[in-house]
Amino acid sequence: MAEYPQLHSIPGGRDLESASSTGADSAAEPAAESAPRPQRDVLRPVPSRPDRPRESRAAREPLWREVLGERLRELRRDHGETLTETAGRAGISPQYLSEIERGRKEPSSEMIAALAGALGTTLGELTAEIAADLLRVTRLAPVRPLAARPPFGPTMLARAA
């Protein structure tokens, strides 16, 4: 039988007494008698790059799917429709439309075209509006300079010749 390293508890973890009194852990996890497992509150995720500060949401350029979602929600609300009404005409579930509007899902071009049609616009018009929104946001956001990289590939071969 393998030996496991001794793990130490890190302050600020889950309170074991309150979790065991609710019965949450015992009901959710099957009993494993073959090997001891470490406690869940002992392990903590380690940041992959602790030396780099995380960018705030406002400081970074938004993703296309986020701007798409905001624009779709704005169009839907301008029409005075519910998620269910718009989703029904587009042929998708209201839950999926909600995730698209929140920027959580990146729908296919066919799905975007169906949503555009359901909202009384075309794919081209919707895409142009999203592009304008992105340009407006990126002009306001601070621009980070690109890191200098040494030349490689065809550029390096041309310099070597």
Radius of gyration, whole Å: 25 Å
Give the CATH superfamily of the domain at 59-140: lambda repressor-like DNA-binding domains
Helix content: 40-55%
Q: Sketch the major β-sheet.
A: none
> End-to-end span in angstroms?
62 Å
Name the beta content range.
under 5%
Please, what is the average pLDDT? Answer: 75
The low-confidence runs, each spanning 5 or more residues with pLDDT under 50, are 13-32
Number of DSSP E strands = 0
What is the CATH class of the domain at 59-140? Mainly Alpha
What series of H and E elements makes up the topology? HHHHHHHH
CATH topology of the domain at 59-140: 434 Repressor (Amino-terminal Domain)
Class derived from helix and strand content: mainly alpha
CATH architecture annotation name of the domain at 59-140: Orthogonal Bundle
Shape: extended
Helix segment tally: 8
Walk me through the structure.
- It is a single chain.
- The chain is mainly α.
- The protein has a domain of 82 residues: 434 Repressor (Amino-terminal Domain) (Orthogonal Bundle), CATH 1.10.260.
- 48% of the residues lie in helices and 0% in strands.
- The protein starts with 15 loop residues before the first helix and ends with a helix.
- About 12% of the residues have low confidence.
Q: What distinguishing features does this structure have?
A:
extended, 8 helices, 161 residues, 0% strand, mainly alpha, 434 Repressor (Amino-terminal Domain), single chain, TransReg_Diox_bact_type
